[in-house]
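User: Hey, my collaborator sent me this sequence without any context and asked if I could get a structure. I don't really work with proteins. Can you help?
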Amino acid sequence: MKREEKFYLIRSDILPESIAKTIEAKKLLESGEVETVNDAVERVGLSRSAYYKYKDGIFPFNAMMSEKIMTITFSLEHVSGYLSKVLTYVADQGGNVLSINQTIPLQGIATVSMSVDMAHLRVSTTEFVDGLQLVPGVRKAMIVGRG
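Assistant: No problem. I've predicted the 3D structure and written it out in structure-token form, which is a compact way to encode the shape of the chain:
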């Protein structure tokens, strides 16, 4: 059973020192200012064990938001109104279409690529894609990227 992740928005000035230093070390590594974890933790005055304990659970607020964008591709029957049904489904599930690209239909089937903001999705991503495949005209939907 997958545990539900919970996220909190916390002012940086009340973070424990080890978490604040982990954030600093991650910034040094991401910017290329240092090359190794050893260099980063030494520069900020943090133990390697504390860094590894917290590094996978700390993200800047804007990074967490961007992880809620998913790109999905699917085949869609070329029938008037079917794309509209897809868009209605996305909206009904709490998703927000950010971009959409549809090829010219060949043999009655078009390929659609859609980026969706999933921040307010009411179902899991798996349930979302499974439900998308139940929308009339949709064939073979799959996630191709998360950003």
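In plain terms: The helical segments are 17-31, 37-44, 48-54, 61-66, 82-92, 125-132. You can pass these tokens on to your collaborator as they are.
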